[in-house]
Amino acid sequence: MYSIGDLSRRTGVKAPTIRYYEQMGLLEAPERSEGNQRRFAKAELERLAFIRHARDLGLTINSIRQLIGLSGHADRPCADADRIAKEQLASVRDRIAKLQKLEEELERIATCCTGETVGDCYVIRALSDHSLCGHEH
Amino acid sequence: MYSIGDLSRRTGVKAPTIRYYEQMGLLEAPERSEGNQRRFAKAELERLAFIRHARDLGLTINSIRQLIGLSGHADRPCADADRIAKEQLASVRDRIAKLQKLEEELERIATCCTGETVGDCYVIRALSDHSLCGHEH
DNA sequence: TCTTGAACCTCTAGTCACTAGAGCAATTAG
DNA sequence: CTAATTGCTCTAGTGACTAGAGGTTCAAGA
Q1: Which chain B residues are within 8 Å of A42, Cβ to Cβ?
Q2: Which ipTM did the prediction report?
Q3: Residue B96: left if φ>0, alpha if ψ -120 to 50, beta else—which one?
Q4: Quick one: fold of A4-74?
Q5: Which CATH architecture has domain B4-71?
Q6: Which of A78, A133, B65, B66 is most enclosed, with most CB atoms within 10 A?
Q7: Are A56 and A88 in contact (CB under 8 A)?
Q8: What count of CB pairs under 8 Å joins A to B?
């Protein structure tokens, strides 16, 4: 039996966040002590590790809820779980591509500023004038 | 003189978002028609394009407010503008690095699932078990 | 056994950058 | 002149937490 603080230390998830996950239905309401404090079993520790891991991978609370729903039915085809992971992968790749364009452009903007005052600052001119951009966005 | 809809079409920023920017102090309160509708001058169109561009680059509303503050004083050194751009670049690079780790891991997870049912689904096992990860996160 | 201080409880509100909707008023095209 | 479109303000919702108030419980030392 772990207190919320134990769980927090073991998983690196802050206590208010654990309560939030419970509220969002990712964790089941745990047992309580006589004084109404949460007492978690090992299964909950493992589930929280799962949630933490999935969040680190960028899955939304909703996706995680779906995965938890799936894992309750070990006999069902795993195509859904696979689909969720693939969707997540696609979205991550998309975000990377967008950020790389930004990187390129910010690089140009931030390294080309040779002006002494704001009046001739390349940063500000580049932000004002889209035509200075290397590409569309 | 542009209506809010004109401005929206010209900059690709939705009308409610334009009002929001005004409320946040990024745009000055524009003139109004007799019937209390916003009428924007060309300067506001340009400033909105600036804001749009900066938002596309991932700058926060706060950073943009700072830049707008700077650009009002064309005689001040542009080191601040430069710093804001550099900070932004660093944060973008950071995000890219993190996402690339995720990509790697999701790739492994999503392409290795050969199980037929959730019970032996690699996706779910990998999410539960951090030790299956290729690296720390 | 008592006491102290840390950890815990619930509840509300705040964050960011919008977005959606209700319920009206003004403008514009035919 | 009328109908359709566009605009107005205001409130509330989003996601995933985080912070704070104001109170209760627990565990360890004296």
Answers
A1: none
A2: 0.70
A3: alpha
A4: Multidrug-efflux Transporter Regulator; Chain: A; Domain 2 (1.10.1660)
A5: Orthogonal Bundle (1.10)
A6: A78
A7: no
A8: 154
